[in-house]
Amino acid sequence: MSSSVGNVVNGGVSFWYADDGLPAPREPLPGDASADVVVVGGGYTGLWTAYYLKKAAPSLRVTVLEQKFCGYGASGRNGGWLYNGIAGRDRYARLHGKEAAGRLQRAMNDTVDEVVRVAAEEGIEADVHQGGVLEVAYTPAQLARLKDFHAHELSFGEKDRELYGAKETAERIRIADAVGSTWTPHGARLHPVKLVKGLAAAVEALGVTIHEQTPVTEIRPKHAVTPYGTVRAPYVLRCTEGFTANLKGQRRTWLPMNSSMIATEPLTDDQWARIGWEGRETLGDMAHAYMYAQRTADGRIALGGRGVPYRFGSRTDNDGRTQASTVDALYEILVRLFPSLTGVRVAHAWSGVLGVPRDWCATVTLDRSTGLGWAGGYVGSGVATTNLAGRTLRDLVLRDSGGADATELTGLPWVGHEVRKWEPEPFRWIGVHGMYATYRTADRRETATHSPESSRLARIADRVAGRH
Ligand SMILES: Cc1cc2nc3c(=O)[nH]c(=O)nc-3n(C[C@H](O)[C@H](O)[C@H](O)COP(=O)(O)OP(=O)(O)OC[C@H]3O[C@@H](n4cnc5c(N)ncnc54)[C@H](O)[C@@H]3O)c2cc1C
């Protein structure tokens, strides 16, 4: 495999930046300052929060503090699946009832449309294509899981989801051994960096102050502390996702889980004719160590999955640099799905971090006694969820400051959810590596045995990890 991945560009934050250009960073914080709301972190969560706050209350003084540049984190590195999945919905159904989780699901369905709407309204050209989400099975065990998954999603009120057999799947996309798929219209493909750059520009145009190259070292009630000065504000909102462990006191809050991607060179018309994929759906599979992919606007395949899942001591990567073994593993998945692409060149490989809470449930919270708020723990589903988080943080802040009543969003079951911290090292490292090694073994067994039963190993790994 390595011959095709030999001269791959590695890191450089992500392919999306190689494609669209790294931004010139904005000025750092010049010294002590004050604001009404300070947002820590300039990814989608921080920027959507600033956007909606400023839209709702133009006189609010909102400051965003970003350690590098807006979109440096997962928001500038993701797979560009804008879709209606939210981490933790099933647990929220168990904790708060199916009706409450159904409201959360409907809010997520609407969120996909909201992102598309705002992007159009703000003139953000983010290569959005609303082709829905297609998830494919290519072993009997995957097919059994796919059918269960399909039925489970329908039970949350998703009436427009469809189940396809092998033939209908092949009419959409030719994947080796595909035996079925499920499709929902609630999804779109996009260019993550074009979205985050456009959003930062829109936020700035509304009058939000953005300081980049400004790491926050500590968050205290009413204070965001940086090496260049402290910003004081009644509300301090932590929007730091996979980097949260670097903040004082937050080492074991959310585990920084790694996800890695490759992008091929642009495929020829001939290659595309063999694959199909005219609908440009975002594409996933039903493997335990699943992959996600998109057909980019310039005719590449960008495909991601789990590489080295987690670095000891919650360390993050160096500007997205990725191990050669991970690049090879992703390439293997690519040609496993599309054998006709054997030999195609990988142009770029990169990685990023997701935030994973101990119970795998995304949350949004404002502590009314301290004015500290946060949103995140999206696991791998943040491109849309961050928008719902931003609107919810807006409502929570406006309610607390007396500018508004409780809203439908503040009543959603992920608001104010509390979870225990991760175990200290080395248990964190051993647990996460063990879990992913088990998933890979489970996938290999299912492929080898052709059994329609999901491997028991994967179920055990799920339970140990606290996923179910
Ligand atoms: C490789 C990869 C693929 C993914 N694919 C998908 C996908 O296809 N669909 C999907 O729904 N989700 C996907 N995700 C997840 C999704 O990208 C994230 O959930 C989402 O971008 C999170 O946004 P955020 O703003 O909360 O975090 P981030 O984008 O990580 O932003 C956090 C920001 O805070 C800054 N920061 C951190 N600490 C500090 C500090 N102390 N001081 C100042 N600034 C700080 C960081 O520099 C960063 O810019 C993927 C993630 C990765 C890594």
UniProtKB/TrEMBL annotation:
Classification via SUPFAM superfamilies: FAD/NAD(P)-binding domain
Top-level taxon: Bacteria
InterPro entries (alphabetical): FAD-dep_OxRdtase, FAD/NAD-bd_sf
Domain FAD dependent oxidoreductase: 36-396
Region (Disordered): 444-468
Basic and acidic residues bias: start-end ranges: 459-468
Pfam families named among the record's database cross-references: DAO
One Gene Ontology term, aspect cellular component: cytoplasm
PANTHER family: FAD DEPENDENT OXIDOREDUCTASE DOMAIN-CONTAINING PROTEIN, SARCOSINE DEHYDROGENASE-RELATED
Entry protein name: FAD-dependent oxidoreductase
Organism: Streptomyces populi
